[in-house]
Amino acid sequence: MILELDCGNSFIKWRVLESQCSTIRAEGVVGSDIALIDSLIALPGLLLTRCRLVSVRALEETDKLVDALVAAFGVVVSCAVSAREVAGVRNGYEDFERLGLDRWLAMLGGYKLAPGACLVLDFGTAATADFVAADGEHLGGFICPGMPLMRNQLRTHTRKIRYDDVAAERALERLSPGHTTAEAVERGCMLMLRGFVLTQLELARSYWGDDFTIFLTGGDAELVADAVPHARLVPDLVFVGLAMACPLS
Ligand SMILES: Nc1ncnc2c1ncn2[C@@H]1O[C@H](COP(=O)(O)OP(=O)(O)O)[C@@H](O)[C@H]1O
Ligand SMILES: CC(C)(COP(=O)(O)O)[C@@H](O)C(=O)NCCC(=O)O
Ligand SMILES: [K+]
């Protein structure tokens, strides 16, 4: 069995695949290294042969996780690394190593699933947009605060914006102007996110007309999905790219 990990700034997304057929045997989202190891240990019949991982965390943090995995399961861990070009996609950053690896892998995945121009939108801690032209050239991208950062900035830097998770969840049932603090903040941030999406779409159209594929991924992708009904919602897009960047042979 193969363990795959996508370590974002807030959560670790994990899944276990059967080595032969790549069927997903188990998967989850956890908030810490310890929670990850606990979830894996709890799986009946787990027999890990390999592990591949992508991380946007600090090197020391990632190394600590790798050490914990080696200690707990005795697996060899392959970590995705930056590259100038993979599978026809050319990294567009001035310094290719500075491009977030989750963005890079999502682009590789998108271009593989729909060879041709792609707009890749990822909604995690940050919201990111990346433009890949039909010939595989990465035209660059944008980074802005995602939903968790937007709401937390308001909660942290104001005196009177306070509400609980239940109120937050209920607030997003509609998008009309809010009548409570929770509604006003949650819906306001949501509209910021949707505004970001629509702006990226406009830019993509100015480059490529209607001839491009939009990918939505990341934990909050569903929040904006109905704003772009023709987009492809692919929650595991980073994992598609991870398998390309870290083939296990
Ligand atoms: N099962 C889940 N566990 C935790 N967060 C989730 C889950 N499903 C969706 N989310 C949402 O995903 C967001 C985090 O997205 P994610 O792509 O995991 O971020 P990152 O890669 O930056 O860690 C959070 O705002 C949270 O609301
Ligand atoms: C932009 C990001 C913070 C997104 O991280 P995430 O929201 O997925 O946790 C990450 O891709 C990153 O740290 N990138 C390095 C900076 C860059 O891509 O320019
Ligand atoms: K991510």
TrEMBL record:
InterPro entries in the record: ATPase_NBD, Type_III_PanK
Catalytic activity: (R)-pantothenate + ATP = (R)-4'-phosphopantothenate + ADP + H(+)
Entry annotation: catalytic residues: 102 (proton acceptor)
Cofactor(s) demanded: K(+); NH4(+)
Gene Ontology biological process: coenzyme A biosynthetic process
One matching Pfam family: Pan_kinase
Top-level class of the enzyme under EC nomenclature: transferase
GO cellular component: cytoplasm
Similarity-based family: Belongs to the type III pantothenate kinase family.
Binding annotation for K(+): 122
Any one GO molecular-function label of the UniProt entry: metal ion binding
Cofactor remark from the record: A monovalent cation. Ammonium or potassium.
Assembly mode: Homodimer.
Binding residues for substrate: 93, 100-103, 181
Annotated keywords: ATP-binding, Coenzyme A biosynthesis, Cytoplasm, Kinase, Metal-binding, Nucleotide-binding, Potassium, Transferase
Pathway field: Cofactor biosynthesis; coenzyme A biosynthesis; CoA from (R)-pantothenate: step 1/5
Source organism: Pseudomonas kairouanensis
Task of the protein: Catalyzes the phosphorylation of pantothenate (Pan), the first step in CoA biosynthesis.
Protein's recorded name: Type III pantothenate kinase
CDD domains: ASKHA_NBD_PanK-III
Gene encoding the protein: coaX
